[in-house]
């Protein structure tokens, strides 16, 4: 028995921590489940006893609390208790069980037992070990506080490495409440008990759960009720001082005498007034109305010291009423009288829709004129207008509309311009893609889908010469070399550019031309090839070669092969350089070829957009490149960008530079023809949209006539008069003069190209219908 | 980056304020705000961008300048309004308490302008503010006078108290007196709405409208409170203007007003003007209806006999009788008049000419004595005659007090204004027998005429005044069809229809011919009426015997080549169609000739043709010209900017509308002239 007691004593010391620190958790021990296991100690008995009491209390209190206490045991303390029980079992072994069996009946009759046990101390003497005093309701220190941690303001983390978390008021260690295992935590998270906050009470180190009361308070606050139940915020007023008038006066004093006697003071004052009235010092009251009635308003010269003051700028004086016209007369001229139809129309119209609010009527004498029944109404409306109508200053242009019209030259002054088709050039199979009149103005070269280049006599329409250069490719462009010293025609079919020498003139010129063309062969071979990065010889951008004997016999002298299809050829005015555009090539889209050296250069590493066409400036070393949206002009000498012209078109098809060099026309696939004044702005000076289909080509007359033409897919050419004055102050005058129709539209293509005669006001056009036309 | 601008603190958002905001800012009621706006001349403005100006999402309709409203904040009237409002509150509170005595006492302090016609406040300072100079006030007098003259003629109602009307009447009469004394009335016009008057005071033209003396029809949709507010302001304005006008010509203001005479309907005569420090100005004395006034019984008998003789054809002798005298008058008038320069040929500019003859308006009627028959409107006639110098005006006693004489038979009367149709004397005599005893000795029998005076209809007075010359009285004789009464206010604009000018002066070239061909003139319309249609005929005639009249022929010859020239130049750049057309027509003609030759019939068509040919020519030419012009216009328009084109289209539209109106009027007139029903024009 002794060891057990000693054991128990020791136990009791260790055990009482959970007991004391968490009396509620002990309540769980009262549960039937655990009782059989752990009730070997007396403490247990006490506990159970206490438990009973508590149960009693609970009965007295509401059931919710009981529920609460039931819930709590599911937490960590239980397992922790089990743990400690486990250790306890190890030490005690079976004995504990027997003790428990022994003691279990005693719990029932605890009253008879002393409140201490006798143990032997270290010396073997007796030692009384008293039970813990249970602070039940009757006990003396019933209002002793529950055990609290006395460590003060020290963080709990300091005790992390210890089994306890502090000391109670008795200096006893408060043992750390056991933590649940991961599985328990999981279980807890699955069914969160009511009142669970997930917080740890810093005072106890236990999970902080809310009691039913607290929950109830929270609920009430949430629903905007008063937190405390049964609290009446508006209690009936307790009438401390009564509001009910007492019938009987509290004072029993008799009425003073003065209330019954006339006041001498008042009599004195009244006598004073009476005397004053008698003496006439005070006049008796007379109603003032009559005097006011007679009062006349006073007039004076309000403008005596008038000073003219200028009106505020924002002030708009009210407009005067319009003076009456003839039709308002009581006896108007008969032509002002409405006819029957007019009268009817006026009467049937809505009063608001009527142009005049009156109907002219004729009275043959003044005595027959009736009163005007809308007189007051009109005056009223006028007054409304005066104060209610917003006034706006409106500028009325009182000028002749003709003065607004631009001064256009008379049609006679605009002449000459091409009006009729005089020659028709037939011979091409399929479309004629391009055509050009040679610098002498006698020959016309054309190239088309059939791969041939043909030269015609301009006036007669006779075909002089033809050469088939493109085997299965269309001739995209033909251009003559400028200058009359030689007769050289350039044409492009596919990737090849050919320089042709049609046998048209005398042998001297021919020889000169041949010499010009062949002069460059030496340079081409000598030219060193640039090396690429990996040391390989860079492929030349273009290959200058002889086209083969067959073509050579026909007059085709040089063939230049570039990488992709060439669409545009443009010659420099001196005739040594020409530029080609092959829009599909990315880097080498624009190439400049030097005829005298058989050299091909790529001036632009990179271009913003797909280049469409290029032009050399007619007098200055400028080079214009048109991409889809913009036209850029570059200075070739300084090698820099000079200007970016933005016509605003979606897709530029072609452009041409005025021989004066300061103006530009741009044709676009979105049907616009734009005139740019380069000095004025980068934006168009005029936009003309007279075509119903895309514009393919635009061209200025270069021989002194102020004309330009555009060719469109709608099968028509439009001729404009565009006069440019050297005076900077005056803008160019543009007058549309003629629409030339004649080409048939084939597969949505009409006129493909247009060119002017170098001297005469004639133009030629290439049609998709396989013909060329001369207009003069 | 600059400072980010806050919304609604600058620009339009700040410059404009909606009406609701304004009312709220001033803390007054909407009616009071309206009053303030009317008096102070504050009117809404149209912001350039309504969305920017209004701060709220809903579209506000009325905007004021914030500065205008701010300027109202310092208005002394605002304080008066507030005081009034407070007083009203006190009264209603007293009444609510059942304290009738207190309410009555307070009521005595309240001004009830609708009852007393008196207000607690004056608008003097507002007048001074709005019109810094007298000229400014005169400039704004049009509406003031129209309104006051209207109110002077209104019946009194609860909304329009009698006092207000009486005051309007007095002010108007005072103003009329000034015009009479200063002779500043210039023009007047009888319209279907009322009578327009124009006066020129210190170089300012003032035009106002006076209704005819009828009971005005008051419709429900007229708010007399608004009108009353205006009238209140105009009272003050016209009072001060009258004061200034009277003192400027040395008269005492206000003139003495004779209540009893006014009650008898003396109107203008109820006022006695006084010169400063001199005393009353002498008015021509009223003639007693004594013996001297009686006409010579012998002469009267003779005239009666003559009248009965000439009963059937009475008008002609009447005019012939009056004419010589009148002509004498006219010659007297015309001696020192400026000659009127009429353009002899169309196309020249019209130079401005002084519109007034050298004769003073004060002397136009100064030598005459008028008598107004009882059916004539007395007030306007009296006013206008007096304003143009007439000193002696008599009228029937029915028309009220203040006449020079009530005796119709007064021998001094030179003109009698009559507005009744001449009655057959035979019927009249019967009637006279029946009711003979009713007539007083002074009254003539209805159809009778007093010898030695001119009988005229009222329009004569107005036309004479407007043209500054005495019109021929025979045109205005009683019962005669009056010439049209034309507005003197219309400014003649070139290209607009002018009813006073002959038709063929103002119509376009060939318009007539075109119109003729359009209308398909009736065969019965005789050529005599149609002057212009005769013209081509005349031309051909002249060409035939060219030697007869040198001048005219030369003129016509000059005309012809120029036209040809025109035609040639048109052909120069026009399409070939026209020429073709002509060619075919000549070919046709030739063909016809050949046929005629074959058949042997003389080709008389050509003989008859000229008119038809002229017509066709005119039409063709016009068509050609129109086409040319259209082409040219189209080309020019193509090169215009869109904005300019829009402006131009607007202008062309309005011009065309005007032209169409004028053309319609011309066409109507042509038709009327052709039908021979035209009225005499002066």
TrEMBL record, chain A:
<dbReference type="GO" id="GO:0043021">
    <property type="term" value="F:ribonucleoprotein complex binding"/>
</dbReference>
<dbReference type="GO" id="GO:0000463">
    <property type="term" value="P:maturation of LSU-rRNA from tricistronic rRNA transcript (SSU-rRNA, 5.8S rRNA, LSU-rRNA)"/>
</dbReference>
<feature type="compositionally biased region" description="Acidic residues">
    <location>
        <begin position="41"/>
        <end position="83"/>
    </location>
</feature>
<comment type="similarity">
    <text>Belongs to the WD repeat BOP1/ERB1 family.</text>
</comment>
<keyword id="KW-0690">Ribosome biogenesis</keyword>
<dbReference type="InterPro" id="IPR001680">
    <property type="entry name" value="WD40_rpt"/>
</dbReference>
<protein>
    <recommendedName>
        <fullName>Ribosome biogenesis protein ERB1</fullName>
    </recommendedName>
</protein>
<dbReference type="InterPro" id="IPR019775">
    <property type="entry name" value="WD40_repeat_CS"/>
</dbReference>
<dbReference type="InterPro" id="IPR036322">
    <property type="entry name" value="WD40_repeat_dom_sf"/>
</dbReference>
<dbReference type="GO" id="GO:0000466">
    <property type="term" value="P:maturation of 5.8S rRNA from tricistronic rRNA transcript (SSU-rRNA, 5.8S rRNA, LSU-rRNA)"/>
</dbReference>
<dbReference type="InterPro" id="IPR015943">
    <property type="entry name" value="WD40/YVTN_repeat-like_dom_sf"/>
</dbReference>
<feature type="repeat" description="WD">
    <location>
        <begin position="751"/>
        <end position="776"/>
    </location>
</feature>
<dbReference type="InterPro" id="IPR028598">
    <property type="entry name" value="BOP1/Erb1"/>
</dbReference>
<dbReference type="InterPro" id="IPR012953">
    <property type="entry name" value="BOP1_N_dom"/>
</dbReference>
<keyword id="KW-0539">Nucleus</keyword>
<keyword id="KW-0677">Repeat</keyword>
<comment type="subunit">
    <text>Component of the NOP7 complex, composed of ERB1, NOP7 and YTM1. Within the NOP7 complex ERB1 appears to interact directly with NOP7 and YTM1. The NOP7 complex also associates with the 66S pre-ribosome.</text>
</comment>
<feature type="domain" description="BOP1 N-terminal">
    <location>
        <begin position="159"/>
        <end position="418"/>
    </location>
</feature>
<keyword id="KW-0853">WD repeat</keyword>
<feature type="repeat" description="WD">
    <location>
        <begin position="425"/>
        <end position="466"/>
    </location>
</feature>
<feature type="region of interest" description="Disordered">
    <location>
        <begin position="1"/>
        <end position="112"/>
    </location>
</feature>
<dbReference type="Pfam" id="PF08145">
    <property type="entry name" value="BOP1NT"/>
</dbReference>
From TrEMBL, chain B:
<feature type="compositionally biased region" description="Acidic residues">
    <location>
        <begin position="507"/>
        <end position="525"/>
    </location>
</feature>
<feature type="region of interest" description="Disordered">
    <location>
        <begin position="426"/>
        <end position="446"/>
    </location>
</feature>
<dbReference type="InterPro" id="IPR036420">
    <property type="entry name" value="BRCT_dom_sf"/>
</dbReference>
<feature type="compositionally biased region" description="Acidic residues">
    <location>
        <begin position="555"/>
        <end position="566"/>
    </location>
</feature>
<dbReference type="GO" id="GO:0005654">
    <property type="term" value="C:nucleoplasm"/>
</dbReference>
<feature type="region of interest" description="Disordered">
    <location>
        <begin position="495"/>
        <end position="588"/>
    </location>
</feature>
<keyword id="KW-0698">rRNA processing</keyword>
<dbReference type="GO" id="GO:0070545">
    <property type="term" value="C:PeBoW complex"/>
</dbReference>
<protein>
    <recommendedName>
        <fullName>Pescadillo homolog</fullName>
    </recommendedName>
</protein>
<keyword id="KW-0690">Ribosome biogenesis</keyword>
<feature type="compositionally biased region" description="Acidic residues">
    <location>
        <begin position="324"/>
        <end position="334"/>
    </location>
</feature>
<keyword id="KW-0539">Nucleus</keyword>
<feature type="region of interest" description="Disordered">
    <location>
        <begin position="310"/>
        <end position="334"/>
    </location>
</feature>
<dbReference type="GO" id="GO:0000463">
    <property type="term" value="P:maturation of LSU-rRNA from tricistronic rRNA transcript (SSU-rRNA, 5.8S rRNA, LSU-rRNA)"/>
</dbReference>
<feature type="compositionally biased region" description="Basic and acidic residues">
    <location>
        <begin position="603"/>
        <end position="628"/>
    </location>
</feature>
<dbReference type="GO" id="GO:0043021">
    <property type="term" value="F:ribonucleoprotein complex binding"/>
</dbReference>
<dbReference type="Pfam" id="PF06732">
    <property type="entry name" value="Pescadillo_N"/>
</dbReference>
<dbReference type="GO" id="GO:0003723">
    <property type="term" value="F:RNA binding"/>
</dbReference>
<dbReference type="GO" id="GO:0000466">
    <property type="term" value="P:maturation of 5.8S rRNA from tricistronic rRNA transcript (SSU-rRNA, 5.8S rRNA, LSU-rRNA)"/>
</dbReference>
<comment type="function">
    <text>Component of the NOP7 complex, which is required for maturation of the 25S and 5.8S ribosomal RNAs and formation of the 60S ribosome.</text>
</comment>
<comment type="similarity">
    <text>Belongs to the pescadillo family.</text>
</comment>
<feature type="domain" description="BRCT">
    <location>
        <begin position="361"/>
        <end position="464"/>
    </location>
</feature>
């Amino acid at each position: 028995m002794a060891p057990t007691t000693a054991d128990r004593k020791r136990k009791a010391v260790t055990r009482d921590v959970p007991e004391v620190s968490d009396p509620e958790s002990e309540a769980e021990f009262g549960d039937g489940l655990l009782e059989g296991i752990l009730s070997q100690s007396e403490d247990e008995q006490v506990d159970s006893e206490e438990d009973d009491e508590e149960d009693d209390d609970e009965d007295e209190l509401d059931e919710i609390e009981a529920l609460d206490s039931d819930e709590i045991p599911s937490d960590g303390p239980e397992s922790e208790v089990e743990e400690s029980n486990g250790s306890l079992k190890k030490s005690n072994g079976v004995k504990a069980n027997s003790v428990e069996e022994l003691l279990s009946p005693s719990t029932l009759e605890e009253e008879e037992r002393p409140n201490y046990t006798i143990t032997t101390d270290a010396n073997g003497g007796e030692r009384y070990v008293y039970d813990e005093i249970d602070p039940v309701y009757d006990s003396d220190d019933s209002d002793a506080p529950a055990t609290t941690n006395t460590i003060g303001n020290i963080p709990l983390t300091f005790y992390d490495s210890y089994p306890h978390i502090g000391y109670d008021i008795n200096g006893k260690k408060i043992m750390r409440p056991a933590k649940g295992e991961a599985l328990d935590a999981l279980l807890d998270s699955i069914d969160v008990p009511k009142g669970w906050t997930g917080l740890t009470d810093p005072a106890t180190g236990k999970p902080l759960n809310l009691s039913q009361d607290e929950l109830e308070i929270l609920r009430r606050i949430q629903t905007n009720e008063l937190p405390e139940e049964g609290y009446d915020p508006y209690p009936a007023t307790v009438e401390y001082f009564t509001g009910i008038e007492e019938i009987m006066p509290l004072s029993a004093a008799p009425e003073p005498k003065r209330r019954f006697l006339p006041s001498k003071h008042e009599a004195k004052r009244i006598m004073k007034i009476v005397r004053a009235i008698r003496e006439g010092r005070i006049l008796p009251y007379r109603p003032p109305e009559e005097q006011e009635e007679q009062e006349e308003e006073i007039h004076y010269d309000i403008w005596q010291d008038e000073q003219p003051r200028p009106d505020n700028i924002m002030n708009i004086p009210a407009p005067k009423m319009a003076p009456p016209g003839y039709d308002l007369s009581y006896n108007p001229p008969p032509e002002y009288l409405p006819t029957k139809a007019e009268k009817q129309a006026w009467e049937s119209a809505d009063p608001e829709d009527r142009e005049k609010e009156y109907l002219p009527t004729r009275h043959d004498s003044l005595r027959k004129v009736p009163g005007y029944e809308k007189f007051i109404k009109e005056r009223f409306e006028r007054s409304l207008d005066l104060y209610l109508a917003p006034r706006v200053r409106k500028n009325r242009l009182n000028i002749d509309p003709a003065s607004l019209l631009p001064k256009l030259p008379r049609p006679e002054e605009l002449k000459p311009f091409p009006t009729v088709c005089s020659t028709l050039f037939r011979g091409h199979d399929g479309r004629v893609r391009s055509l050009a009149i040679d610098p002498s103005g006698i020959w016309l070269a054309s190239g088309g889908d059939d791969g041939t280049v043909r030269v015609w006599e301009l006036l007669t329409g006779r075909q002089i010469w033809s050469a088939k250069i493109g085997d299965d490719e269309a001739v995209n462009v033909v251009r003559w070399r400028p200058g009359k010293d030689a007769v050289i025609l350039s044409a492009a079919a596919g990737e090849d550019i050919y320089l042709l020498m049609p046998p048209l003139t005398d042998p001297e010129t021919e020889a000169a031309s041949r010499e010009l063309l062949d002069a460059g062969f030496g340079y081409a071979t000598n030219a060193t090839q640039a090396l690429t990065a990996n040391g390989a010889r860079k492929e030349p951008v273009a290959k200058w070669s002889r086209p083969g004997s067959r073509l050579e016999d026909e007059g085709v002298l040089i063939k230049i092969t570039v990488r992709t299809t060439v669409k545009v050829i443009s010659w420099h005015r001196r005739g040594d350089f020409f530029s080609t555009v092959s829009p599909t090539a990315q880097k080498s889209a624009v190439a400049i070829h030097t005829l005298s050296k058989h050299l091909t250069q790529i001036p632009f590493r990179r271009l913003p957009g797909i280049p469409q066409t290029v032009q050399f400036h007619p007098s200055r070393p400028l080079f214009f490149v048109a991409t889809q949206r913009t036209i850029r002009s570059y200075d070739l000498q300084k090698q820099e960008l000079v200007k970016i012209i933005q016509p605003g078109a979606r897709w530029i098809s072609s452009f041409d530079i005025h021989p004066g060099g300061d103006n530009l026309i741009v044709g676009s696939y979105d049907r616009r023809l734009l005139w740019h004044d380069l000095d004025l702005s980068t934006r168009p000076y005029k936009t003309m949209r007279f075509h119903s289909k895309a514009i393919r080509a635009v061209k200025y007359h270069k021989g002194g006539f102020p004309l330009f033409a555009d060719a469109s897919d709608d099968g028509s050419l439009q001729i404009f008069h565009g006069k440019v004055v050297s005076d900077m102050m005056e803008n160019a005058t543009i007058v549309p003069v003629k629409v030339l129709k004649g080409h048939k539209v084939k597969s949505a293509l009409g006129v493909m190209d247009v060119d002017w005669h170098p001297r005469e006001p004639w133009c030629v056009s290439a049609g998709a219908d396989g013909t060329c036309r001369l207009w003069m | 980056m600059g400072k980010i601008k806050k919304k609604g603190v600058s620009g339009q958002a700040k410059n404009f304020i909606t009406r609701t905001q304004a009312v709220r800012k001033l803390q007054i009621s909407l009616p009071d705000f309206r009053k303030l706006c009317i008096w102070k001349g504050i009117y809404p403005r149209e912001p350039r961008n309504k969305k920017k100006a209004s701060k709220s999402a809903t579209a506000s309709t009325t905007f004021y300048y914030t500065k205008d409203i701010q300027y109202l904040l310092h208005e002394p009237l605002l304080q008066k309004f507030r005081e009034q409002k407070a007083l009203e509150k006190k009264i209603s509170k007293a009444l609510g308490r059942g304290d009738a005595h207190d309410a009555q006492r307070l009521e005595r302090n309240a001004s009830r302008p609708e009852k007393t016609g008196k207000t607690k406040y004056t608008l003097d300072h507002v007048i001074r503010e709005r019109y810094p100079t007298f000229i400014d006030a005169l400039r704004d007098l049009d509406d003031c006078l129209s309104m006051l003259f209207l109110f002077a003629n209104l019946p009194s109602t609860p909304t329009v108290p009698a006092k207000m009307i009486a005051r309007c009447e007095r002010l108007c009469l005072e103003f009329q007196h000034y015009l009479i004394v200063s002779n500043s009335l210039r023009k007047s016009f009888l319209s279907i709405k009322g009578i327009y008057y124009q006066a020129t005071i210190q170089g300012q033209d003032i035009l106002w409208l006076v209704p005819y003396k009828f009971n005005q029809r008051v419709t429900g949709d007229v708010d007399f409170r608004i009108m009353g507010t205006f009238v209140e302001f105009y009272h003050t304005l016209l009072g001060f203007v009258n004061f200034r006008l009277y003192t400027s010509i040395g008269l005492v203001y206000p003139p003495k007003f004779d209540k009893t005479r006014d009650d008898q309907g003396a109107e203008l005569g109820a006022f006695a003007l006084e010169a400063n420090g001199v005393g009353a100005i002498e008015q021509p004395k009223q003639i007693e209806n004594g013996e001297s006034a009686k006409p010579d019984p012998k002469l009267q008998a003779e005239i009666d006999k003559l009248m009965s003789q000439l009963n059937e054809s009475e008008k002609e002798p009447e005019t012939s009788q009056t004419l010589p005298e009148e002509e004498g008058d006219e010659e007297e008038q015309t001696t020192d008049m400026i000659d009127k320069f009429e353009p002899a040929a169309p196309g020249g500019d019209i130079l401005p000419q002084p519109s007034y003859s050298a004769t003073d308006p004060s002397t136009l009627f100064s030598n005459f004595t008028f008598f107004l028959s009882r059916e004539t409107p007395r007030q306007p006639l009296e006013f206008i005659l007096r304003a143009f110098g007439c000193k002696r005006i008599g009228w029937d006693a029915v028309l009220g007090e203040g006449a020079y004489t009530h005796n119709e038979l007064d021998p001094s009367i030179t003109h009698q204004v009559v507005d009744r149709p001449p009655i057959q004397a035979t019927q009249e005599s019967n009637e006279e027998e029946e009711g003979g005893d009713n007539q007083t000795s002074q009254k003539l029998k209805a159809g009778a005429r007093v010898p030695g005076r001119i009988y005229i209809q009222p329009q004569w007075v107005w036309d004479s005044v407007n043209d500054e010359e005495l019109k021929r009285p025979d045109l205005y004789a009683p019962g005669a069809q009056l010439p049209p009464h034309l507005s003197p206010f219309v400014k003649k604009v070139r290209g607009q229809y002018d009813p006073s000018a002959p038709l063929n002066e103002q119509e376009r070239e060939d318009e007539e011919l075109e119109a003729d061909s359009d209308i398909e003139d009736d065969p019965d319309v005789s050529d005599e009426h149609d002057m212009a249609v005769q013209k081509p005929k005349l031309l051909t005639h002249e060409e035939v015997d060219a030697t007869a009249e040198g001048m005219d022929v030369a003129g016509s010859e000059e005309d012809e080549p120029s036209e040809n020239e025109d035609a040639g130049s048109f052909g120069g750049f026009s399409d070939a169609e026209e020429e073709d057309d002509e060619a075919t027509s000549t070919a046709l003609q030739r063909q016809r000739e050949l046929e005629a030759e074959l058949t042997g019939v003389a080709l008389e068509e050509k003989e008859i043709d000229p008119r038809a040919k002229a017509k066709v020519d005119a039409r063709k030419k016009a068509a050609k010209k129109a086409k040319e012009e259209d082409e040219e216009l189209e080309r020019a328009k193509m090169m215009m900017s869109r904005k300019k084109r829009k402006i131009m289209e607007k202008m062309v539209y309005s011009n065309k509308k005007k032209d169409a109106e004028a053309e319609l009027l011309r066409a109507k007139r042509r038709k009327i002239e052709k039908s021979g029903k035209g009225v005499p024009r002066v």
